[in-house]
Amino acid sequence: MKLDANLASVHAYLCADGYVIKNPKDQKFNYYHIGFRNTNEVLLKDFQIKFEKIFGIKPHLVLGERCRIGSKQIYEKLTNSFGSFYSWHWKMPEMDENLSKLWLKSYYDCDGWVTCKSHKNRHIGLDSVNEHGLIQIKNSLEKLGIKSKIKKRNDRNIFSLMIFGKDNLVNFSKNIGFLHPDKNNKLNESINDFINYYWNFPTEKDKLVNFIRKLIFNNGRINKSNRIFRLISNKEDNLINLKNELNKLFNIECKINKRKNGIGTIYFELNINRREELKKLIDNNLLNKEQRKWLNLKK
Question: What is the pLDDT of residues 248-267, one digit of tens each?
Answer without folding.
Answer: 999 999 999 999 888 788 99
